[in-house]
Amino acid sequence: MKEFEFGIYSLGERVPDANGNTPTAQSRVEDIIQMAKMADEAGLDIFGVGEHHRLDFVTSSYALILAAIARETKNIKLTSTLSVISTADPVRVYEDTATLDLISDGRTEIILGRGAFLESFSLFGVSLNDYDELFEEKLNLFFKLQEQEVVNYWHGEFRSPLKNAQISPRPIQKEIPIWIGVGGTPASAVRAGRLGVNMALGLLSGRPESVKHLTDLYWHFAKEAGHDLTKLRVSVTGHSYVSLTGEQAITEFVPHYNQYFSYFLKERGQHFHSTVEQLMPQRAPGQILAVGSAEELAEKILYQHELFGHSRFMGQLDMGGQPLSRVEKAIDLLANKVAPIVRKALSK
């Protein structure tokens, strides 16, 4: 049985605080690098950076940020969370990822997906009408690049053919670990299972039973396709925060939760506001939102493990402008309190 892994990630959003002050792009990038260093020093297993192409994010070139992190860290694995393969050139993505693997001495992974925002489609000149076809074709090409350092011939609909194409550099790892990011779409879970690649399940709120069908589909179709289930993994990712007590965690989390969602939902004409009282029940094991004390978060992860069979948890601790000093304390609790509880329970 694989040891359960713990990590954190950042999407690099620049959300104004309650006074309307927005962090600079430079300070936000620096905070992300510092978070990764803290996570590495605390002994967490993995750190991720998402991809977005908007002025209110700083992570359009996530591979460059991860490369900077690679030079500042020693042990922690590094991944995209996630790479929007639908609108990118898979050759370029693979080359960047392989280069990151060289820089990090073989600590690189990648999560491929379609993302929650659509700005990259118009930015890179691809049509939303081809949403599914783009993802399918480019995903399959990425797998081929992983397998072949010289692609003798490849032809697709959405980019020029490859003929005797040398794919360089090659990574340190024989194969870079690939995950497919899955939100709420059953077809994505089925695809990941059939392909026999790891699944990164993004969960935000509600009850975990409501999404159990996604992991059930994943494991079912992976088994049906003949893949070795012992070599496959599921991770759970989502909004997270941990403090000394559950009450303190919710109290410190709510203002930044509100800043984050009210900012992004406002552009869709929606209003968002949660109170401390409304979120307190979310500390229960049967709720997805990963906020609470170390003991509560551990209980929540163990509850979900029974449902999903997952072996990795990744939390977005810095959402909505959560101060770096609090993020550091949350990282310490995740690494030194939550992780030991979960691993001890699973070892039995």
Automatic annotation (TrEMBL):
Protein name per the record: LLM class flavin-dependent oxidoreductase
Keyword annotations of the record: Monooxygenase, Oxidoreductase
Keyword Oxidoreductase: yes
UniProt keyword annotation of Iron-sulfur present: no
Domain of life: Bacteria
Domain Luciferase-like: residue ranges: 16-309
Record InterPro entries: Bact_Lucif_Oxidored, Luciferase-like_dom, Luciferase-like_sf
